[in-house]
Design brief:
Elements (H helix, E strand, L loop, with lengths): L2 H4 L1 E7 L2 H11 L2 H4 L5 E6 L3 H13 L6 E9 L10 H17 L3 E6 L12 H6 L9 H7 L13 H12 L5 H10 L8 H13 L13 E6 L2
Parallel strand pairs: 1-2, 1-3, 2-5, 3-4
Helix pairs in contact: 2-9, 4-5
Length: 227
């Protein structure tokens, strides 16, 4: 088998298992993303968000010939340089990736402020996955009453605090698998977060579905934790 035939589609460096499971859930739905099925591997950086920001390009340098594309995914909150915008952080990481051999084949995706911003949408599946199904008041009304949400704003002001409060209220344990469930069930069209939109458009540009139709089978996503 030649090198081109052995090359996998995507490698991702992420900050934690919640992101790993979220990405795994997203990539398991190629049809919903508007892409073909992809072969993917996910690496959890042991230094979490700061490691992804400062050293992802060092980890990825060895894989330029083994993967067609790369993604670096981390939170702005907790990365160590929170005074910078998500866009500035993405630009810096992408510049380092280009210099390390990836050129235009890699992107950085910085969640602002944290991964939980992707959790919140008007999908009924959000309440179900968080254990709120069938309860009154509605989840949205409870968030408003508790001050986590504001009228006219789609997402809570502090997405992570809101999610943790809901899980305490429903006596549901926080787990990475819950992020995967959300990624597998919530409509992508309901998520208007600009960072998610960037990721979706990037994946569509790299792995566009064939004209005959969109792939419906899922790709693989394996986590590797580095020493």
């Amino acid at each position: 088998m030649n090198a081109a035939a052995a090359m996998r589609d995507l490698i991702a460096i992420v900050a934690d298992k919640d992101m790993e499971f979220s990405l795994k859930g997203l990539l398991s739905r190629p049809k919903a993303l508007g892409i073909r099925s992809v072969t993917a591997d996910v690496v959890v950086h042991i230094e979490r968000d700061p490691g992804c920001y400062r050293r992802a390009h060092d980890l990825l340098r060895a894989f330029t010939g083994r993967y067609a594309h790369a993604v670096v995914l981390f939170d702005r909150q907790g990365c160590g340089v929170e005074q910078k915008t998500a866009g500035e952080l993405e630009h810096e990481v992408e510049a380092r990736l280009q210099r390390s051999g990836w050129k235009s084949r890699a992107v950085a995706v910085v969640l602002d402020p944290e991964l939980e911003v992707w959790v919140w949408s008007d999908s009924p599946h959000v309440a179900e996955v968080l254990g709120w199904s069938g309860e009154r008041p509605t989840l949205r009304d409870w968030l408003l009453a508790k001050g986590f949400a504001q009228q006219g704003r789609a997402k809570p002001r502090d997405p992570k605090a809101a999610m943790e409060a809901v899980l305490r209220r429903t006596n549901c344990p926080r787990s990475a698998a819950r992020y995967e469930q959300l990624a597998k069930r919530v409509s992508f069209e309901r998520c208007v977060d600009p960072v998610f939109t960037k990721l979706k458009k990037t994946l569509r540009g790299w792995f566009s579905a064939s004209p005959e139709g969109l792939a419906s089978d899922s790709g693989t996503s394996n986590e590797t934790e580095l020493p």
